[in-house]
Amino acid sequence: MDFHLDKWHDLKGWQGALYLTGLGGISALAFPPTYFIFILFFSFPLLLHSIDRSKNWKCALMKGYWFGFGLHTIGLSWLVNAILIRAQDFWWLVPIVSPLCAILLALWTGLPTLFYYWIKPSKKLKIFVFAGLWSVCDMSRAVMLPPNWWNPVLTGFPWNPLASTWEIPGRIGDIFIQTVSLIGVDGLTLITVILVLLPLYGKKGWMIIAGTICGLALFGSYRLAEKPPITDNNTPIVALIQGNIAEDDKIANTDPRRIFQKYMQLTSDAVIQAVTLRQELGQFERPIIYAWPESSFPGGIQYDDAARKVMMQNNPDASFGIIGAITQQEPNVLYNSLVVLRQPDGAIDHVYNKVKLVPFGESQPWYIPFHVVPGQVLTPGEGNVTLNLSRVSSFAPLICYEVIFSGQILDYKNRPKWILNLTNDAWYGNSAGPRQHLAAARLRAVEEGIPVVRVANTGISAVYDSYGRKISQIDWGVKGVRAVALPGALSFTLFSLGHRFIPFCLSLICIFTGVAGKFLSRGKIIN
Which of 127, 182, 232, 289 stands 20 to 30 A from 241 (CA)? Predict the structure, then answer.
């Protein structure tokens, strides 16, 4: 790539910061739901060229920081919708909520540029060093320390990895995301950064880009041509119920009876649909399960024996009901829970408490001097579990953004047959937020080789098979139900065996190769 923009890279002060912030901002258009991945082939080479012209480490650090500030400000612009719901309390946050989050997240783009400047790799290998550093720093965004530790930065928010730019809806996306079954989302991020920097090497770089993309497409097509995994009589038919309850109504809770009745009617419709599907398939022994979204039960489900009994007795064909609810197991201790009800009396069979709480939404960082959590601060659960129900294939429960944590969602000693993700994206409106969240769920299906069922309050509810192919979907902002006969799970994927150790090692190999190449080029090893 021939650069004639050196004067832009030499800008200082606010002008340089504005240029790099804009460069990062347009890069965010590569994320779902726009998927303008071609922009990265322009913005990332410009970023690296600018870093190469840095006069000192502080300059390199700030160039990466401002790029990340723009990337995350635009990528998380949908957060404004959550503030608008509570505008009477936090109206002043409306124009600055995404920049405030970007102030922290931009550190993870500043660090790789800083380390890159210190290493000063050779020209031939510099893109591998930068890609490895970017991937390792990006992986560290998933680190979540306990809420009472000193953790003003490590709050756990691995949102919008660059690998998600390949998660294009439909067949094209199905093909290109299959690589994550081998190396995970972080490994695909590594490949993505290498690819978008290859234009720095001119015609040869573009030829390598074309060859790599063809290789990814061939691998994805080959993998999708495999025979689907076999199901058995314990693989359930799951009835997804999307109530489309406005978040204002959920918060106010002024008419819980109406909300409950609405869900009851939808549940009856969904179970009837599931029974019809079971008859059409001729698989009369397959169990039926219905699922409500996150925090959908308008009350204390543990103490409402009558409601639980009605929920199951009105739907006798359903073996279990899975409900999102806020539960209280100790005085003044609340959990965001997934509650499993069984036939015939609605007794509670299992309770899963959400482990990873949303910073600022469910957990209150100690360094914030005012209360930002809507309602009482929640308590995290104890760890990932696999739930085993009678005569139903085992599943892994996940609530809300727990699904975005690559390699951290399952009890790997007790591998489940499917994943159930209850969520409530009503906070974020009809924006990029729910689409980006949905993309993460799809990537988990491919990584683990396990079907994913996603049930959302206002959408988007969906079911993906173990290859990440969409089986069914309820769109955003509609009230609806879907009954889906779940497909089988793969016995394993390479990523499910090695987890994040695989992309971490690949990233280190890229970094050390660049470092070794630098010394080799100087003759310090061969001499």
Answer: 232
